[in-house]
Amino acid sequence: MVPLVLNDDDVRRRLDPSTAVRAVRSAMLAHHDGTLHAPPRVRADLGEGDVVFTTGLMRAHGLFGFRAYDTFADAEQLVAVWGDEDGKLRVLVHGRELGARRTGAIGAVAVDAAARPGPIRVGLIGAGVQAWAQLWALRAVRPIETVTVASRHAQRAEDFAQRATRELGVDVRAVSRVEDAVRDREVVIVATNSSVPVLEAEWITAGTHVTTLGPKTISRHEIPAELEDRADVILTDSRAQAAGYRDAHLLAVDRMVELGAVLAGTASGRTSSDQITLFSSVGLAGTEVAVAAALCGARS
Question: What's domain 4-99+286-296's superfamily in CATH?
Fold first, then answer.
């Protein structure tokens, strides 16, 4: 068997939002019921930085694999998937698109599980790859009425809005102030690399769902610590990974509810329309393996 080798262009062409969301949702449910074994990430210290590995064994599909990325050279990421019965390498995916779109799909699953029902108005903070992937995936789970996007670089927000409107068919408008982007939104997504909060907790109105993607530790965090006090429900995709940060997580891990448990119906998420829900996206290990496997049809 010759393994399939895919690059970023292949991922963009082959992977649609619905496929990514289905793969991620299935992986989260499998993690909850114990058929996805996904230990916390492992770091190899190379002096200048780390090479990081996340791994997953999908027992129900007879597949296992890993994702590898670095923290110092901004190198291409690598995802590899094997069959566990024959030991054959099935697929190699190199580049950055798979990781970002997998994270987008995780965010979409969280929105679908925790945001108020119905169409959504989205507030985006950040106009980079991660923000794009979140919006790309959201279309698979909810009708999007409007999107407001703010960035510390105004031109990036304008460019993002024009591109998203053109390519994703979503009504996206750039705004100059973060407060204008996030007030009175059903969903707020914070997708920055900022080490200090980029918004105020009181800007988040009752009933909003918030996803944080960027720094979220005690020493570096893109959301204010006060948002934890305002949140009625705090979700994550992996409590083990949230607890495994070198620097302590900004949010209390013992308050976190795993998204897989909410999807399975064994834990509660939102229980009223005026609650604020907060999702800390840590990237459940094994979800990238699930998306790569779905991408190449290895799970069929």
Answer: ornithine cyclodeaminase, domain 1 (3.30.1780.10)
* pLDDT tens per residue across span 91-140: 999 999 999 999 999 999 999 999 999 999 999 999 999 999 999 999 99
- CA pair distance 54, 68, nearest whole angstrom: 7
Supply φ then ψ for residue 236, to 5 degrees.
-150, 165
**Residue 46 has what DSSP assignment?**
-
Residue 98, class by beta-carbon neighbours within 10 Å (0-12 exposed, 13-18 middle, 19+ buried)?
A: buried
What is the rounded CA–CA span in Å between residue 176 and residue 180? 8
Residue length of the chain: 300
pLDDT interval class at 295 (50, 70, 90): confident
CATH of 101-280, one of 3.40.640.10, 3.40.50.10580, 3.80.10.10, 3.40.50.720: 3.40.50.720
- Reading the block at residue 158, the tokens are 């304008």
- Name which of 173, 27, 42 is nearest 105 in CA terms: 27
Q: What pLDDT, on the 0 to 100 scale, is given for residue 95?
A: 97
Q: Check if the beta carbon of residue 171 is closer than 8 Å to that of residue 195.
A: no
- Whether residue 39 contacts residue 56, with contact meaning beta carbons closer than 8 Å, is answered with no
pLDDT digits (tens, 9 = 90+) for 21-37: 999 999 999 999 999 99
Q: For residues 283 and 13, is the Cβ–Cβ distance under 8 A?
A: no
Asked if residues 288 and 105 have their Cβ atoms less than 8 Å apart, the reply is no
Beta strand 120-125 with 144-150 is: parallel
Note whether 177 and 150 are within 8 A (CB).
yes
